[in-house]
Amino acid sequence: MFLAIKLEISKIAKKKKKIIDNLTKILLSTIIFILLGANFIFIASWVIHELQILSVEDNSKVTVFHSISAQEQNTRLKVEVFNACGVKNVAKMMTDFLRDNNVDVVYYGNYLVNNRIYSIHKTLVIDRKHENRRSAKRIAKMIDVKEKYVIHQLSPEREVDVTILIGKDYNALKAFR
Fold first, then answer.
1. pLDDT in tens, 61-80
2. Percentage, residues of the chain above pLDDT 70
3. Do residues 77 and 103 touch, judged by C-beta distance below 8 A?
């Protein structure tokens, strides 16, 4: 009788160990599956980001359309335009619009931070010369940017009056309507 009970307890212990082993295997398999899925998502996200970077052109050349007088050149605002939304050709389109409106765009290209394309949601117009934001307000009005997105950031090393960072709201700007 005692031996039968001992055998029965041994069988129960073996079944319990087998169940625990199976549950451990299922748990470990589930954890590995979740980690593999997370890795796949991270890799896919990185690949998509890199493809977006490759699809945005860096149009950093300056084009002069016509000769202007020295007096007119001194009164024209010097502007730089940056694509900060990741959509191809928006900096070029804004540059064309501004040049058609007698603004001297001295540079256009992609907005890079640490050599990576950086995106912002709202377009910013930055006055580089005047604390009262006079020049930036003029440009903001021209392209339909609200005054609350016009800021002053003194930058004497930049040889421009105004910097435009075109955000993901670019469709609302006058140049894109």
1. 545 455 555 544 446 889 99
2. 84
3. yes
Q: How far apart are the first and last CA of the chain?
A: 93
Q: How many CB atoms lie within 10 A of CB 53?
A: 13
CA–CA distance, 33 with 87 (Å, rounded to integer)? 35
Contact 55, 88 (CB under 8 A): yes
* Per-residue pLDDT at 171: 94
List, for residues 34-63, the tens digit of each pLDDT value: 999 999 998 988 887 777 665 555 554 545
Contact 98, 79 (CB under 8 A): yes
Question: Following DSSP, what letter does each residue of 127-168 receive, concatenated?
Answer: ESS-TT-HHHHHHHHHHT--GGGEEE---TTS--SEEEEE-T
Residue 84 in tokens: 């900060």
Which helix or strand (DSSP H or E) is residue 110 part of? strand 104-110
